[in-house]
């Protein structure tokens, strides 16, 4: 059974008097343990599809099932609870709190849980160790390189042990060397720790780290290929 099952998915936005159709009847299955790269020109619907899979947005029509839950049927409060338990998010610009240490940034998702302060700290330390930053827990974002900040963001994304990692241009703000380190880390989380990864990218070299590459164009899924 697929981890993510999408059927006849449509998304339309109202912009003033005009309706803008972004996705047109998408059908898609993503298996547990896949590493999927979503590619396509600007405006093709990549980020919209990513946000729908991650429960950050809701469809106009169609079905989205993730891990046996029909998330298109959930209200906003239910969806927030579902996201906190099932999805980790990694964004292009890290979205770290500048006044907090790396460890405190990683702990943020755990503030919504019943874990004690000591357990939150321990879980954050484990996540930072997994991304290779065990010795940087007390550093604030300004004291870290861009690649290190993205590693902190990934640690924050995995600290709740989600099944699904949603990554929107995770290397878009990094130099090539740092980008390759981050992509290697995502690949390791996928292969070694069983995380299912769905990543939007414009970079063909980044897409090569995935197990499947999906191409969107004008809201349609036009091609699915395996990397060379």
UniProtKB/TrEMBL annotation:
Signal peptide: none
Keyword entries, A-Z: ATP-binding, Nucleotide-binding, Transport
A Pfam family matched in the record: ABC_tran
GO cellular component: plasma membrane; transmembrane transporter complex
Source organism, top-level taxon: Bacteria
Domain ABC transporter: 4-228
Keyword check for ATP-binding: yes
GO MF annotations, alphabetized: ATP binding; ATP hydrolysis activity; transmembrane transporter activity
Keyword Chloroplast included in the entry's annotation: no
PROSITE patterns xrefs: ABC_TRANSPORTER_1 (PS00211), ABC_TRANSPORTER_2 (PS50893)
Gene3D superfamilies tied to this protein: P-loop containing nucleotide triphosphate hydrolases
UniProt cross-references to PANTHER family, sorted A to Z: ABC TRANSPORTER ATP-BINDING PROTEIN, IMPORT ATP-BINDING PROTEIN
Family of the protein in this entry: Belongs to the ABC transporter superfamily. Macrolide exporter (TC 3.A.1.122) family.
Protein name per Swiss-Prot or TrEMBL: ABC transporter ATP-binding protein
Annotated source species: Cognatiluteimonas weifangensis
Classification lineage: Bacteria, Pseudomonadati, Pseudomonadota, Gammaproteobacteria, Lysobacterales
